[in-house]
Amino acid sequence: MRRKGDLPQKTCVVCGRPFTWRKKWDKVWAEVRYCSERCRRNGKSGGTGQLVK
Fold it and tell me: How far apart are the C-alpha atoms of 39 and 12, rounded to whole Å?
């Protein structure tokens, strides 16, 4: 069993935040590019994912 600090990390291509490996991504980790469903939707529409005030 691994500790949280030992899990692999990637950076989201939309928001730029780091995210860590999840068990549900075990077989597709190489293809994972987004940290969340929200970033995946924003990334495909061409949005930057950043909110402007």
Answer: 8
